[in-house]
Amino acid sequence: MPAARRRALSHAVAGLHRTFHRYPYRPAMPACPHCVSDADLRRLGRPLDELAVDEVRRYARKAITTRGDARDFKRMLPRLAELMITDSLAVDPQLVTGKLRRAAWQHWPEPEQAAVHHFLRAWWAEGLAEPPSSGCCAYRRLAAVAVADTDISPYLDDWQRALAADGPVRLAAVLHLVKLVIDHGGLVDDAGWTEALFDEPAAGAALAAWLTGSTTVIQLERAAYDYAGSPHGQRVAAATAVLEDQRPPAWLGAPIESADAPDAGALDQLPAPPGQKLRR
After folding, report:
1. I need a surface site. Which of 26, 60, 174, 177 has the fewest CB within 10 A?
2. Could you give the C-alpha distances from 263 to 9, 95, 204, 259, in angstroms and in order?
């Protein structure tokens, strides 16, 4: 399953290339004369796949603010995405998603919005399918997504479907949830919850509501039972206890609402890149 997610992510990046290849390099792009040299701008004129990682990283830090505008960012976006998903860019992903927000991507033409949204969903799904590691933490990836897309409900639906799946997909989703709860679960009812994870209060509130909702808590309770005695059992049980303490007592033992627990088979049903169906 992780391999399928990686293929979907590759398709999403290819969709960015197809969608934004029509934006040319502009030698006269707006730039701060005190911050950016003519040589810096000329180097950006090379084909995207020939741009050195260091140059792309410098562009990412200065994009739109002191180098170019949204049109130039659209041209560079596929290369930024390629390097971001492999961690080659070596910057906080929120830097890139923050540039998306600054470029007002949700007001771009519909095909461009669709390509960006598909990429964000695919990047999220790929991270969710891998167990937590130093290079992949679901809640940090979700925080980066929320910088660009403040409506995180589709991403939380993906997480819920993964929790209701089986095999490695479920285990990875459970371990990501456990990490979130162990790291930050005690803050759910605290004013610092949003500030600890998100720039956007709405995203923090949505995650807190999802985290303490009956469906999520019961899925974690089931995981604590299923993984008892495994190497992960103690951490899953500890996270379950934290969430049960955060949830109102009247909700304990509440049935899982079908509307809150989408069909696990729908996890792979991400929107296809514009003009292309994903291969399964």
Report:
1. 26
2. 22, 34, 25, 9
Yes or no: say if 162 and 173 are a contact pair by the CB < 8 Å rule: yes
Residue that the structure tokens 């509130």 belong to = 205
Residue 151 CB coordination number (10 Å): 13
Place of tokens 């899925």: 219
Eight-class DSSP state of 193: H
Bridge partner residues of 63 (DSSP) = 67
- Which among 253, 229, 208, 14 is positioned nearest to 119, based on CA atoms? 14
Please give the DSSP secondary-structure letter assigned to residue 280: -
Token pair for residue 104?
């007002």
Those residues with Cβ within 8 angstroms of residue 3's Cβ, 6 or more apart along the chain or in another chain: none
Task: Judge whether 73 and 62 are in contact, CB under 8 Å.
Answer: no
Indicate the pLDDT class of residue 276, thresholds 50, 70 and 90. Answer: very low
| pLDDT the model gives residue 202 | 84
DSSP conformation class of 125: H
Which two three-digit tokens encode residue 36? Answer: 């950016």
Expressed in angstroms, the distance from the first to the final Cα of the chain is 11
Which of helix, strand or coil describes residue 92? coil
Tokens 């089986």 correspond to what residue? Answer: 166
- Evaluate whether 20 touches 77 at the Cβ level (below 8 Å): yes
Q: How many residues does the chain have?
A: 280
Cβ neighbours for 91, distance < 8 A, ≥ 6 positions apart:
57, 60, 61
Q: What is the band of 117 on the pLDDT scale with cuts at 50, 70, 90?
A: very high
Single pTM value for the model? 0.85
